[in-house]
Specification:
The chain has 290 residues and is an alpha+beta fold. It has helices at residues 3-9, 54-64, 68-75, 132-140, 150-185, 189-221, 225-228, 232-289, and strands at 13-19, 24-26, 43-49, 82-85, 89-100, 105-116, 119-124.
Length: 290
C-alpha cells in the first residue's frame, strides 16, 4: 500500500503546494520524491489538518531532519505556546480559538509550524481550515506572497491566526450587545448566567492571547530565520494587532463587570420594592389579625 492510499484511509486532511514567482503546483502525494522535486527556486508548503496519522508526521519529520522532541510537541495538543529557534530552522507552537455564539463557549486548536529552508510545514489539531485564505492567495498568484520567501509564508500563517482572534472578538462583542439589551429590558437568571459565561470566555481568550503576544515579541527581538529575511517589520505589525486585541479584551471585561453590578443593583431594587409591598400588607393585616 503506497502513501497515497494510507492518506485516503486516514481522516487527516493534507495539502501540499510548491510555488515560485511564476509557477505553482499542488502535490497529491507526499513521498520521498516530494522532498527532492522543484528544489531550486520553489517554496514548499505542507499543511496537515488532524494529528491522527502519526506515521505521516514522522515521515515528514524524518525527511526534514527534525528532532524527535519536536515530533512529540507536534502531537501533544496540551503543549503550551512556545518558540524554538535553531540555526537553520524555526519551530512554533500556537493556539487558535473557535467561538460558538449559540453556547457562548470557546475551544482552542493546537497549531504547530516548522520552517526549514524553503520548506514550511503546518500541523493543525483538527481539519478546520484556518489557512484557506492564504492557500487561495498562493493558487491565484495575485498576492505578494508568491514573490517572497518561505519566511513570509510563515508570517502569513501567523497573521491568519491572529486575524482569527479578531473574528472571535467580533462574536463576543455581538454577544455582549445582546446581553446588554436583555439587561435593560428584562433581566433574569439567564442574563446573569450569560454574563458569567462571557466573563469566563474573555478570561479564557486573554490567557490564549498573552503567550502569543510574548512569542511574537520574541520573534521581533531575537535573531531568527525570520529576522534574517527582514520579516520582522511584518511581525511588528502582528504584535501591534495583538496589543489591540488585549486592549479590546480588557474593555469587554470592564463592560461585563459593569453589567454584573447593574444586574445586582436591579435585583436589589426589585427586592426593595417587594419588601415595601409586604410591609404595606403587614401594616394592614397584622392589626386586624390581632
Amino acid at each position: 500500500m503506497d502513501l497515497m492510499e494510507n492518506q485516503s484511509q486516514n481522516s487527516n486532511k493534507i495539502s501540499a503546494i510548491s510555488y515560485s514567482k511564476d509557477k505553482v503546483f499542488e502535490n497529491p502525494v507526499i513521498d520521498d520524491g516530494f522532498f527532492r522535486q522543484y528544489s531550486n527556486g520553489f517554496i514548499h508548503w505542507i499543511d496537515i489538518g488532524g494529528l491522527n496519522d502519526t506515521d505521516k508526521i514522522e515521515f515528514i519529520g524524518k525527511n526534514l531532519g527534525l528532532h524527535h522532541l519536536i515530533i512529540e510537541d507536534i502531537l501533544n495538543t496540551n503543549q503550551m505556546t512556545k518558540l524554538d529557534n535553531y540555526e537553520d530552522s524555526l519551530f512554533i507552537v500556537l493556539k487558535t480559538v473557535k467561538f460558538d455564539s449559540s453556547t457562548l463557549n470557546s475551544e482552542t486548536q493546537h497549531v504547530s509550524i516548522i520552517l526549514k529552508g524553503n520548506y514550511l510545514v503546518s500541523f493543525r489539531e483538527s481539519d478546520r481550515d484556518i489557512f484557506s485564505g492564504v492557500r487561495e492567495k498562493i493558487l491565484s498568484g495575485e498576492d505578494y506572497i508568491r514573490k517572497s520567501s518561505a519566511g513570509f509564508l510563515c508570517y502569513e500563517l501567523i497573521d491568519a491566526i491572529v486575524d482569527n482572534y479578531f473574528t472571535v472578538l467580533d462574536h463576543l462583542g455581538d454577544a455582549t450587545d445582546e446581553v446588554e439589551e436583555e439587561l435593560i429590558s428584562s433581566p433574569s437568571k439567564k442574563t446573569l448566567q450569560k454574563i458569567y459565561f462571557i466573563k469566563r470566555e474573555l478570561m479564557f481568550l486573554r490567557k490564549s492571547v498573552f503567550p502569543l503576544r510574548e512569542l511574537i515579541g520574541g520573534l521581533t527581538r531575537y535573531e531568527s530565520v525570520l529576522k534574517s529575511e527582514n520579516i520582522d517589520i511584518y511581525l511588528r505589525d502582528v504584535y501591534d494587532h495583538l496589543i489591540q486585541i488585549v486592549d479590546t479584551l480588557e474593555t469587554y471585561q470592564d463592560i461585563m463587570s459593569n453589567m454584573l453590578d447593574t444586574y445586582l443593583s436591579s435585583i436589589g431594587n426589585r427586592t426593595n420594592d417587594t419588601m415595601k409591598i409586604l410591609t404595606i400588607f403587614s401594616t394592614i393585616f397584622i392589626p386586624l389579625t390581632f
